[in-house]
Each structure stands twice: as structure tokens, then as C-alpha cells.
Amino acid sequence: MIYLICKNCNSKVSAIIDHSGNDEAWENYESFCEKDFIVAGQYFKDPDDNFILNIKDKVNLDYHPDSKRLTGCCGPSESQEPNLICKCGTEIGREITDCINPHYIRILTNMVKEVDDKWMALGLIKDLEKQNPQDERLSCFYNLVQYGNENEILKYINQNLKKEK
User: How far is Cα of residue 165 from the mean position of the Cα atoms in its chain?
Assistant: First the structure.
């Protein structure tokens, strides 16, 4: 499992994702029109080696201030410049949500770095959740690890550890 960070400022720009092994999805591209092209929590690479993610897996990304990059019938189309920027302003990728396309995010490989989730944090939290499903702190922590930033995670740990003592 990995997550992606901006090459410029090291901000997390994706949730923790796992390679789906579905690099051949382009062969069935049209069959996904108006549907998610990939399941949340997974990724694969396009023919240009860019990351393809579910829209729900974007983190700390905003739309480009140039509204021309968001054009399409029902949402941004696929055939233009990047329309997603990191909080530092770096152009990271393109969200595609037009009605004539599958819905996904293309993250430009040359604009991000892969970070390996060595600790398998999400798997560990899910295992703990199975042992104690009534403890809502675990699901809160899971969401924070998946979508939050490092400072929010550390703050949550410090606040909850102090309560335990």
C-alpha cells in the first residue's frame, strides 16, 4: 500500500491506496461512462504511467483557479490541462467527471512521490476495529490516517493518549 505526496511541498495528495492490478481497464473504458472507473482505495497506471485513482481518494487537492480547466458538460472532461492543484499551488493532476467519461482522477507521476505505508496502518486499525467494534475512536482514527495530515494525526494521538492515563 502507498500514498502519494506532492514533489514540491511533500503534502499528502492521496489516501492510502493499493495497486489493483487492473492496468488493462483502458480496454473497457467506454463501459464505465458516468461510473467510477476504479474502486476507492485502489489505483492503477494509465498507458503514460500516471496514477488513476477514485475521486474519493484525493486529499489536500483543490480545483485550479483557471475555470477553463474545469470545462465539460456535466463536469471536467478528460482532454485538457491539469485541473487539480496541491495547497502549495503545484499542478498535480486532472479530475474527470464529465457525463461522457468514466469518473476518476489522473495524478501526474512526475508531480508526486510514492510513499510506502510500511506500517500497514490501515490494516492494523481495521484489525483493532474487528476486536472492539463499539470503539468509535478507532473508526475516527482510521479516517484521520486515511484522509488527514500528519499534524492532525499527531494531535489526535496526543489528545487520546492523555485521556487514557
Answer: 35
Q: What distance in Å separates the CA atoms of residue 73 and residue 85, rounded to the nearest whole number?
A: 21
Residue 108's φ and ψ, nearest 5 degrees, are -70, 120
pLDDT for res 121: 65
Q: How is residue 116 annotated by DSSP? A: E
- Among the listed residues 54, 78, 80, 51, the one whose alpha carbon sits nearest the alpha carbon of residue 66: 80
149/111 same-domain check: no
Pure H helices in 4-149: 121-131, 136-147
Name the stretches of the chain with pLDDT < 50: 165
32 and 84: one domain? Answer: yes
Q: Say how many domains are in the chain.
A: 2
Same domain? For 13 and 91 the reply is yes
Phi and psi (nearest 5°) for 158? -60, -40
State whether 82 and 149 are in the same domain. Answer: no
pLDDT for the residue numbered 152: 74
